[in-house]
Structure formats: C-alpha cells, structure tokens
Amino acid sequence: MARCFREHAETGLTILLTSANLAAILPFPDINPIAVSLGPISVHWYGLAYVAGILLGWFYARRLVDNGKLWLNDTAPMTRQHLDDFILWVAFGIVLGGRIGYILFYDLDPVLANPIRAIEVWNGGMSFHGGLIGTTIAMILFARRNQIPTWSLFDIVAAVAPIGLFFGRIANFINGELWGRASDVPWAMVFCSPHVIAAHNGVCPAGPDPRHPSQLYEAGIEGIILFLILFVLTRWALALKKPGTASGIFVIGYAFSRIFVEFFRQPDEQLGYLLGTNWLTMGMVLSLPMVAIGLWAVIRARLAAARQMA
C-alpha cells in the first residue's frame, strides 16, 4: 500500500513539475491594448474593464436590492431606481478620485512640472485608494440627497466592488503594466510583447527579466476571493442586516490582499521603496490605515445591532 501511495505521489509530482516547466516557457500574451478601432476612435481594454465592472456591479447590486430577506427588517433600504441613478455618481467618483489619487500619491512632482500630464491617463493611470476616496464621497452625497442609510449604501457597493477590481487587474495584465518583481518562479513572465514595445516607443519598460504576474495575483485575491467572501457574508451570514459589516470586511480584505501582493509587485519607478527599505511601498502605506478603518466599521456595526436588540 505504501509503495502504491509513493508511486501515485511521484506521478503527481511529475505532472506538477511538467506543468510548471510548460508555464515557465509560456510567453507574455501579445494582446493589443486597443480592443476596437473605429476610424480615429480607439476603445481600449482598460476602458472596457471599467465599463464591465460598473455594469456587472450594478446588475448584481440590483439582485441584492430585490432580495428583501437579506436586509434589516426584511426590507431593502433603497430601490432599483436609486441604483440606476447612482451609476453616474459612482462612475465619476471612481474616475476622478482614481486619477486625482494617483497624481497626489504617486505622480505629484511630474504633474506640477507639467500640468497637462494630469489628464494624460496613460502616464500612470489610476489609484485604487484615490478611487475609493472618490467613491466614498459620492456615496455620502448621494445617500444624503436621497435619504438612504449611508452604511447600507456602503455595504452594497462593497459587495460588488471586487467585480470591478477583477476586471481592472486583468486590464493591467493585458496592458503589460504594474508588473511584479523579478523572479525565477516557474510561472514568471517577461512582460515584453510587440504591442507593449510599440506603446513605449520601441522600449520594453519591464526589461528582459522574468517577473511575477502580480496583476493576476491581485485579480485572483482582490477580485475572485474577496467577492466570494462577501458573497457568503451577504447571502448566508446575512451581513447586510448589520449595516457597516460588509463594507468593513471589504476594506480589511482589500488592505490585507494589497499588502500581501505588494511583496511581489514592483513599486512605481518614480517612488521606489520607502524609508530606505527594500520592501516597504506606497501601496502598503496607503493600505495599513484601511485595516483600522475596517475594524472600526465592523465593531461599530456590531454595537449598533446590539443596541437595536436591547
């Protein structure tokens, strides 16, 4: 029996090693960042990722609102019409907050030297933390204007946010940007392709070294895993009945996911590592306060629920 087990184990190890070796020779896919060109108009995968994330998030949010049993007193605190109206607000919050956040956190000096760079979204792109701040402001203003419980709006947006994160990171991967640190893991990739080189005036910005595909790590952890956690919490644990719980868990989950992936992700060139270290990055620094904020939100939600039951 022991011999049979050993033989099966050796066979499994051989398959794993073979798969790893195959992955090691897989090149970075040469996908054109431009999905569709219509004359002078070009539609990029990055833009489509934002559209897909917002629309699919809106569709899933409507499903949550339709299910009254998920909410406090078995009644959703908002309607489908509210969500329809909110789409424009959240879109502006994400885009404006994301761009302004990137400038402030990662690219301030170059923008001050050349202000036109502020609207050149291809120079650096967007910041999640800035987008989160912009979306939060949009949610607070919309909730007050429409007399919706703010924490419940936070929760429904938190439940759908991983969908957008997933598509955004896949778009980063297609663009060959935000790559990982140099590595010799079997699945490391050289982030050079004809389209990437062409987009950077004949230069491969990631260099010739194989690197962690950290965009895919983030898509899997921040996108798929975090979505599943929030799905279980909202659908089975009925977290929406305690307003603030889902949003708190989202903030904590994203913070830990981002901090973890930052150990594999190459820091932004203009910033590098912080405080003279070879590991601390701006992404980590911006994510650390999110842990405290998320914990506070969860504790506040539990205390509020306890007071209602008392």
Tag the structure with descriptive keywords:
about 300 residues, two-stranded antiparallel ribbon, mainly alpha, about 5% strand, 2 strands
Polypeptide structure, described:
The chain crosses the membrane at residues 12-31, 43-61, 86-106, 126-143, 150-171, 219-238, 245-264, 279-299. It is a multi-pass membrane protein. This is Phosphatidylglycerol--prolipoprotein diacylglyceryl transferase. Keywords: Cell membrane, Membrane, Transferase, Transmembrane, Transmembrane helix. The protein has 310 residues and is mostly helical. Helix content is 64%, strand content 3%. The protein is built from 10 helices and 2 strands. The protein has a two-stranded antiparallel sheet. It is globular, with a radius of gyration of 22 Å. Mean pLDDT is 89; it is low at 5-25.
Instruction: Strand order, main sheet: write it out.
Output: 1-2
Summing up helix and strand content along with how strands pair, one would put the structural category as mainly alpha
Biggest beta sheet attributes: 2 strands, antiparallel
Q: Count the strands? A: 2
* Residues in β-strands, percent: under 5%
Amino-to-carboxy terminus distance: 60 Å
Helix coverage percent of residues? Answer: 55-70%
Please compute the radius of gyration using only Cα atoms: 22 Å
Low-confidence runs (pLDDT<50, min 5 residues)?
5-25
Function: Catalyzes the transfer of the diacylglyceryl group from phosphatidylglycerol to the sulfhydryl group of the N-terminal cysteine of a prolipoprotein, the first step in the formation of mature lipoproteins.
Pathway: Protein modification; lipoprotein biosynthesis (diacylglyceryl transfer)
Organism: Rhizobium tropici
Keywords: Cell membrane, Membrane, Transferase, Transmembrane, Transmembrane helix
